[in-house]
Amino acid sequence: MLILGIETSCDETAAAVVRDGDVVLSSVVASQNELHAEYGGVVPELASRAHVERITPVIRAAVAQAGVALTDINAVAAGHRPGLIGSLLVGVAAGKALAWALGVPLIGVDHVHAHLYAGALRVGPGEPRLGVTFPALGLVVSGGHTSIYELSSWTLMQRLGATIDDAMGEAYDKAAAILGVPFPGGPNLDALAATPGANDRLADLPVSRLGPGSLDFSFSGLKTSLLYQVRGVPTPPRDRPPDPVPEMTPERTRDLAASFQRAAVRAIILKLDRALEHVASRGVHCRTLLTGGGVTANSRLRRELAEFCTARGLTLSLPPMAYCVDNAAMIAGLAEHLAAAGRFADITLQAEPTTSC
Ligand code: KG4
Ligand code: ZN
Q1: Which of 189, 325, 327 for mutating ligand 1's site (highest number of atoms within 8 Å of CB)?
Q2: C-alpha 42 to ligand 1 mean position (Å)
Q3: Order of strands, edge to edge, in the sheet holding 75-81?
Q4: Atom of ligand 1 at shortest distance to CA of 326?
Q5: Best mutation site among 172, 296, 302, 330 for ligand 1 pocket (most ligand atoms within 8 Å of CB)
Q6: Ligand 1, residues 31, 117, 142: which to mutate, most atoms within 8 A of Cβ?
Q7: Predicted TM-score (pTM) of this structure
Q8: Is residue 215 within 8 Å of residue 274, measured between CB atoms?
Q9: CA of 222 to the centre of ligand 2 (A)
Q10: Residues at Cβ < 5 Å from ligand 2 ion
Q11: Residue 352 host element (H or E)
């Protein structure tokens, strides 16, 4: 099938044409980074207005770059949840309108589930298929989500754990703001932490475990500890003066970035280990780790995930850089499997800001 995918859940306006679930014929992403940079984060109202302006040219470009005509498209897939409601509405409305006008089926795709599919996309038509073996464990780490899944197939997945406060990418962005690292914080903090000579043990920042068997994540304590390293503890005991805060030199900033990165990545590996044990206790032996989301672009996380999978005998599905962040190829790719399972939507498809699965 030739599926046109549409993605507008946050601040990327994206469209892609994917053949047979994994051959990416085109993937166009119009980033709004420059639009939100001066505010230090995504402004929902600005994002949705920008989607309205960009969605039609982006879809046109995706179809043109794929070398096909709109009338060749067999189905339209739209990311319909979760995300910023004003942003989602634009992509869902565009998807409905196109599917209706072309007389082809519409498929609603969960954005977080689609992130797990990003590593199964082929960058070029000559590249071999990934050949995912199920059951698989899934990890999504992005600006809005940090979740672990158990997958029996591409269309049967269960969330085992999720963040109870900040998402990992959000924690990176806030840590970058604390350290004075410019927007976009995540990639810039990663680059700083990876500078040769960076000392990732400068500060022993906390790795949240939550309850003994918990598969959930928490990044707010890590973020607060980093803040205290920069500004000092706000309420020291009354009987002694506050500890002096070392001056924030470029070296200290770099080393705190590396210390933050070390703790954040350790939290992920720890929970993946627990999740493997958890499913194994039910007799489920995962063969693959599927990963996705903007933070899978992180250099240290990529390295540690590879080491983790080698040590546990798992095949690692790590998206190519272009498909780590939000894109529509992952939406169109997963939609092929939803279509094969008969999971079509219709004109009543709703944009939903949250997801419960
Ligand atoms: O998946 P994505 O594009 O959007 C959401 O669905 O949230 O993820 C964006 C997030 C941002 O928080 C960004 O700072 C983070 O991914 N990110 C990174 C890196 N590249 C992107 N975080 C850490 N290291 C990176 N290299
Ligand atoms: Zn995303």
Answers
A1: 325
A2: 12
A3: 23-31, 12-19, 2-7, 75-81, 106-110
A4: 3
A5: 172
A6: 142
A7: 0.93
A8: yes
A9: 22
A10: 142, 326
A11: none
Residues at CB less than 6 angstroms from ligand 1: 10, 142-144, 169-170, 172-173, 184-187, 190, 293-295, 297-298, 325-326
Q: How do residues 181-232 score in pLDDT, each as one tens digit? A: 987 899 999 999 999 999 999 999 999 999 989 999 999 999 999 999 999 9
Q: Which ligand is located closest to the Cα atom of residue 84?
A: 1
Residue with tokens 């079509």: 344
pLDDT digits (tens, 9 = 90+) for 86-111: 999 999 999 999 999 999 999 999 99
Q: Are 116 and 293 in contact (CB under 8 A)?
A: no
Please check whether residue 23 is in contact with residue 122, taking contact to mean a CB–CB distance below 8 angstroms: yes
Q: For the chain, where are the E strands, in sequence order?
A: 2-7, 12-19, 23-31, 75-81, 106-110, 136-141, 146-153, 156-162, 288-292, 315-317
Q: What are phi and psi of 352, to 5 degrees?
A: -125, 125
- Name the one residue in this structure whose structure tokens are 């390295």: 303
CA-to-CA distance for 335 and 19, rounded, in angstroms? Answer: 11
| C-alpha–C-alpha distance, residues 142 and 172, integer Å | 10
HSE on the CB side for 117, CA within 13 Å? 29
Contacts with 322 (C-beta within 8 Å, 6 or more apart), sequence order: 27, 123
Instruction: Determine the angle formed by the axes of helices 250-280 and 299-312, rounding to 10 degrees.
Output: 30
The residue assigned the tokens 């209706």 is 100
Residue 91 phi, psi (nearest 5): -70, -40
At 29, which amino acid appears? V
The pairing of beta strand 2-7 with beta strand 75-81: parallel
- Cα of 37 to ligand 2 centre, how many Å? 18
